[in-house]
Specification:
Blueprint: H1 2-20, H2 24-32, E1 37-41, H3 45-52, E2 58-61, H4 65-68, H5 80-93, E3 98-102, H6 112-126, E4 130-132, H7 140-148, E5 153-158, H8 164-167, H9 177-193, E6 197-201, H10 205-214, E7 219-222, E8 230-233, H11 235-238, H12 256-272
Parallel strand pairs: 1-2, 1-8, 2-3, 3-4, 4-5, 5-6, 6-7, 7-8
Bound molecules: 3-methyl-2-oxobutanoic acid (KIV).
């Protein structure tokens, strides 16, 4: 009886530890255990506290902050400094999710040395625990070197937004047989280079299924259908904060944008009408 109580206490304690601290091993093990991996983007302290309180596996400081936080048309102007600034903020609010930060456009393409240096800055100055890079075979040397520098890497294939000018817009990728073969080869090359997970963005569901099947590492889909090992969404899209454009693959779980507008409208009216502040709000 007593040993059962101790056993339960041990299990509870370790469950809490498992809930609180996600790392690359726990993420990779999820695929073996046939458990889905969850990831959301996050760009600041307040949101990091809210999201990580719900036992999310990974927070991604995505360079999508260029669109949703900085108001750029695309992610190309985002700098390493922007990524470090937002990663620091998220780090302070994160309660145990694995913290992954995007390497922005032109921070890893130029040379292997430059890639390692910038990944190192994102980890050392920002506090990220892993970095994400966009591309396949063409960046495997950079991936290997970053991994050799003891920095875990997530790959990103399919509609890689940093290649928007090459793709001629935000278009679903992997539609032709040739593109499908290349995507599979790229995914395998990234896995061999040492990435611990790969994001698959805006590709046909059957292709994502095939890629997922031929990899030992987890696939994390965004617009890649139902059969990936996990899913990621941009937080501002899924809570209805960012409405400039809304891809078909997004599900809106809340309408926070409308809630904010209503609150602001109400505040303005109450200030104008002298209803706010009241005595209880005064010193
Ligand atoms: O920058 C980002 O938010 C991303 C996700 C869309 C995966 O890369």
């Amino acid at each position: 009886m007593l040993s059962n109580i101790f056993r339960q206490r041990w299990l509870d304690k370790n469950k809490v530890v498992a809930m609180m601290n996600k790392n690359v091993i726990t993420i990779m093990n999820k695929k073996l255990l046939n458990e889905k991996t969850t990831m959301l983007t996050c760009y600041d302290y307040t949101m990091a506290k809210l999201i990580s309180s719900q036992d999310i596996d990974m927070l991604l400081v995505g360079d999508s902050l260029g669109n949703v936080k900085l108001g750029y048309e695309n992610t190309l102007p985002v700098t390493v400094e922007d990524m470090i600034y937002h990663t620091k903020s998220v780090k302070r609010g994160n309660a145990g999710a694995l913290l992954v930060t995007d390497m922005p456009f032109m921070s890893y393409e130029i040379s292997v040395e430059n890639a390692v240096k910038n990944a190192g800055r994102i980890v050392k100055e920002g506090g990220a625990e892993a970095v994400k890079v966009e591309g396949g075979i063409e960046i495997v040397e950079q991936v290997k070197a970053i991994v050799n520098a003891k920095i875990p890497v997530v790959g990103h294939l399919g509609l890689t937004p940093q290649a928007i000018n090459k793709f001629g817009g935000f278009k679903v990728q992997g539609k032709t047989e040739e593109a499908q073969k290349k995507l599979i080869v790229d995914a395998q090359a990234l896995e061999s280079a040492g990435v611990f997970a790969v994001v698959l963005e805006a590709i046909p569901e059957q292709l994502a299924k095939e890629v997922t099947k031929c990899l030992k590492i987890p696939s994390v889909g965004i617009g890649a259908g139902r059969f990936c090992d996990g899913q990621v969404l941009v937080i501002d899209d899924m809570i209805g904060m960012f409405t400039d454009f809304m891809p078909k693959f997004v599900k809106k779980y809340a309408n926070v944008g409308e809630t904010i507008k209503a609150a602001v409208k109400n505040y303005i009216e109450e200030v104008k009408e002298g209803k706010f502040p009241q005595e209880e709000n005064a010193y």
